[in-house]
Design a protein that fits this description.
The chain is 44% helix and 20% strand. The chain is of the alpha/beta class and 596 residues long.
Length: 596
């Protein structure tokens, strides 16, 4: 791939120096030694070098008749060749203003003549030289200059050949992701008369997302790498021998074929999927393999390699999310990704604006007295382009970035303001805010929130933090420790969406909490289904026995409210009582229910 066009010249030079250093560490190369011998023979000079220039050192990668193997970079005459990016000839170094005082000139080995041709990296940056050296002044004919340039181009080819070390996956020994990108670029760079046939890039995932991480945790990396080799071999023997298989990750592979051969590849993959499902193939681990495929058809001459790669990958992700065995690329996939990217990058501006983010408040009502006993603060985003964006469209994205902490702090700040408004109205009210596991893993998160309460003179007892993602939370004891800090300070802790997802009762012993919120899916049919009534009734009894306050979410009718009241459920929340309200409307609803 080409160097990013946004890099500065100094950054490009830095990359070139790092590449030179990497190549210098690969060890000797006889082919480069042969180049130095050719230089001395064809140009009639006593000494020739192939050099690589780093930030501080000049490495002499190959040499003929020269006493040292490296020099400080600031003494290297090859620096002038690198700076000029072109063939450089100094007929008498003792007459050169820059180099006549160079120790390599006025002391041993007393270089008097220098000619160097730059060696370029695949990105077009000069990384070293092929140079001719003599110990007496001399000139270089045009023919000899051409020879030196040609040999420098040969040195470049040798270095690129050595780069194949970086194009092999060390686990499967298949061509790797970098080789795939390079092959895509090769197709893209062909001259019009050599234009490649329409192509298809196929991505194949062999397990469900995250499964290999679970296997690593359970069996260790060696066993999983062995599994990956087994899968690679299965794919190799299943695909036609002329179709190249690439290893992208331990569980993900790619196939680059002409569109004419696409059907042959899919037929082979379909046959392999059937044999895997029948248990005909066994790998070293007793695991179930499921092939999932995404692909993109493209014209190599008009499609950038990064676009071909990204679109085929988008198709695979869509296939995985929809659990489809095969999925072609569709333009809507990119549109969805662009929207996600715009939402993620636009949140910082939203935090600084005054008209994009706001909170609404959904009252929590006592099922016994009918009074409002709390409100849940819910975030809303009025995006300048997309309008009202549902929280589920951006919170999961933001929670994977560093913006989740300032966003949650913004929500808490607004919630503190609401708490103070309720106090001024004479109806002190608990305000609940949602926090993510990412928040809870922040070292100073709890202390920062407690400082905010203290600065505003608000008692911690009026703030409640609602925790989601129970499975993720329990995987890291730091999150549970943060919850304990909140609880020790008097902040209420609620566990949200109990009854959906990871609802193992065992975690209630491990997470210090005050409130359990029953998910809508658990209580929605208690009025019509006897089995649901029995489950919810016993569950409420058990949870209350352990001292939890129980809140039922998603109550939408009188019959459900009545049943939960009969079960002595503490509180309810849902459209039957109130939809999410503005702060002013929530204050009014509180006054009305409190005076009823």
């Amino acid at each position: 791939m080409g160097v990013d066009r946004n890099l500065t010249r100094s950054e490009r030079q830095k990359l070139a120096m790092l590449e030179a250093q990497r190549l210098a560490q690969l060890g000797p190369d006889r082919s480069l030694d042969n180049i130095t011998r050719l230089v001395t023979q064809l140009l009639g000079v006593p000494t020739s070098l192939v050099t690589l220039i780093g930030e501080e050192r000049q490495w002499i990668k190959a040499k003929h008749n020269f006493p040292v193997s490296e020099t400080p970079a600031n003494l290297a005459i090859c620096q002038r060749t690198i700076e000029r990016n072109a063939l450089t000839v100094i007929e008498d170094t003792t007459l050169d203003e820059e180099y006549r005082n160079n120790p390599l000139v006025f002391a041993e080995p007393r270089i008097r003549f220098y000619a160097g041709a730059p060696v370029f990296s695949s990105e077009g940056q000069a990384i070293g030289c092929v140079c001719a050296i003599d110990y007496q002044p001399r000139s270089l004919s045009e023919h000899e200059r051409g020879i030196l340039v040609t040999l420098a181009e040969l040195a470049k080819s040798i270095f690129e050949t050595s780069n194949t070390v970086g194009f092999i996956d060390s686990v499967t020994m298949l061509p790797n992701r970098q080789k795939l990108i390079r092959d895509l670029k090769t197709l893209n760079d062909r001259a019009p008369e050599q234009a490649a046939l329409p192509a298809t890039l196929i991505f194949v995932e062999t397990t469900r997302p995250g499964y290999y991480n679970e296997l690593i945790h359970g069996f260790g990396i060696d066993a999983v790498e062995s599994q990956s080799r087994d899968v690679a071999n299965l794919l190799r023997i299943s695909l036609p021998s002329n179709q190249i298989l690439y290893a992208v990750t331990l569980s993900r592979f790619a196939i680059l074929v002409t569109q004419a051969d696409r059907r042959v590849a899919f037929t082979a993959l379909e046959a392999l999927a059937v044999r895997l499902s029948d248990g005909e193939y066994e790998t070293n681990l007793p695991t179930r393999l499921n092939l999932c495929t995404g692909y993109y058809d493209f014209e190599p001459r008009v499609t950038r390699p990064v676009d071909a790669f990204g679109r085929a990958l988008s198709a695979l992700h869509e296939a995985l999310s929809k659990r489809k065995p095969v999925m072609p690329y569709c333009m809507e996939f990119d549109q969805a990704q662009r929207r996600q990217l715009e939402l993620t990058t636009g949140l910082l501006e939203a935090l600084q604006a005054s008209d994009q983010l706001h909170l609404v408040y959904q009252p929590r009502v006592s099922l016994l007295s009918g009074e409002v006993v709390g409100v849940e603060a819910l975030l809303r985003w009025n995006h300048p382009r997309y309008g009202n964006v549902p929280p589920l469209d951006f919170i999961p994205l933001i929670s994977q970035t560093t913006l989740i902490t300032p966003l949650t702090q913004w929500v808490v700040c607004e919630a503190i303001y609401a708490i103070k408004r309720f106090e001024l109205e004479g109806v002190p009210m608990v305000v609940s805010v949602n926090v993510t596991t990412t928040n809870l893993l922040e070292e100073s998160f709890a202390l920062d929130i407690l400082d905010m309460l203290d600065e505003q003179g608000v008692s911690p007892e009026y703030l409640e933090v609602e925790c989601l993602e129970m499975e993720e939370l329990l995987q890291d004891p730091r999150a549970v420790e943060t919850i304990q800090v909140f609880r020790d300070a008097g902040v209420r802790v609620a566990l949200d969406d109990f009854g959906s997802g990871y609802s193992n009762l065992n975690y209630l012993r491990r997470i210090p909490a005050d409130v359990i919120k029953l998910d809508k899916s658990l209580v929605s049919d208690v009025a019509s289904n006897a089995d649901s009534r029995a489950i919810v009734f016993r569950l409420i009894q058990m949870l209350q026995h352990f001292g939890f306050e129980i809140v039922a979410e998603g109550i939408e009718d009188q019959a459900t409210a009545d049943r939960l009241r009969d079960f002595r459920c503490d509180a309810g929340q849902g459209y039957f009582f109130h939809r999410p309200l503005s702060l002013e409307a929530a204050l009014e609803a509180t006054r009305q229910r409190s005076s009823a």
